[in-house]
Amino acid sequence: MNGRGTQDDVQTLLLEVIRRRAAFEALESEPMSKRELAETVGVSGATAHRILASFREWGLIERSDEGHGVTPLGTEIGRAAGDYRARVETALRLEPLFSAVDLDGTFDIETFADATVTVAEHGNPYGPLNRFTTLLEETESLRGFDTTSVAPTYVEDIHAKIADGMSVEVVYDYGIVDQLATEYAQLAADAFDRDNLVLRVHEDVPFGLALFDDRVGIGGYDDETGLLTVFVDTDDPGAIEWGERLFESYWEGSSAV
Fold it and tell me: For the chain, first and last CA: distance in Å?
């Protein structure tokens, strides 16, 4: 691979390792002959020969008495290709979130690699909201911000949690608190009088963010209906730290009700 290193070379090499992933992982596990590689990945001898020739050309493998094994360079390239592939897979899984939410530049996609992605679908339009309320039932505290109030179906459930003493700190878009007080006057009046509920308002809340006891969730809404169309949540420590920093920044920029 001497003399290589251009952007096109890097892209070609990564794609080659990803395309030949089964063969590369087989060689990473142990050195193999051409015949052993062909049998392991289920290809013809001619195909196995082409794979080995390509890997050798890039300096990813070398031949020894034990067979064709991965070089130190190959090990690093394999790790990079695996990270690249995982990142692409995560991005595709999170596509509904990216379509609904304009995330800030500090968002780290890798911390959401194992996230649960719940999308509103035909026949189950309230899937994301059901996921949120399930997590709400399991937590003793809730912090976050939101662009809209909770759906009417779930107002009593949330009020019950607050009445039971759940600690809640929420930043809403301007107007949402007044909406709650108007549409759910009795429940809102009772909740607003409780010390364990603190509401603040902000003029530019970007999307929905929920910090539970041990998870963080992001919610995106349909602009026309206001329906929660996607909810993504994870217990990754890095994601939770990101959510806490983001919440604090909006909390500090908010005003008391």
Answer: 64
Please, are residues 97 and 230 in contact by the beta-carbon 8 Å criterion? yes
Q: What is the pTM of this model?
A: 0.81
| Phi, psi values for residue 176, rounded to 5° | -70, -40
247, with CB counted inside 10 A (0-12, 13-18, 19+), is: buried
- pLDDT mean values, one per 10 residues, the chain (257 residues): 67 90 95 96 96 95 95 94 92 95 90 96 91 92 85 70 87 79 76 84 91 96 86 98 96 90
* CB neighbour burial string for 92-125, b if at least 16 within 10 angstroms, e if fewer: ebbebbeebbebeeebebebbbebebbbbeeeee
CA atoms within 13 A on the CB side of 240: 11
